[in-house]
Specification:
Blueprint lengths: L17 E2 L6 E2 L7 E5 L2 E5 L1 H6 L1 H6 L7
Antiparallel strand pairs: 1-2, 3-4
Length: about 70
């Protein structure tokens, strides 16, 4: 049995889908255009709008090897 080292945060209402950490938007299926990060072992998803609004902060956290 595989152990998930990056569990999803608790979703409101159970398995309602993936929830945006920024605005709370819910996606029923895994959205391929959403961004996500792993912080403290927990995945945080950002919808397209929130990712776009916070792109500078997201890029600022990348290691220098990405530049």
């Amino acid at each position: 049995m595989e152990h998930d080292t990056n569990p999803q945060p608790e979703q409101p209402g159970g398995d309602a889908g993936i929830v945006c950490a920024g605005c709370g938007k819910v996606a029923e299926e895994k959205p391929v255009t959403w961004a996500f990060s792993v912080e403290g072992g927990v995945r945080h998803h950002l919808c397209d709008d929130c990712a776009r609004a916070n792109i500078r902060a997201i890029e600022g956290r990348l290691d220098s090897q990405w530049w």
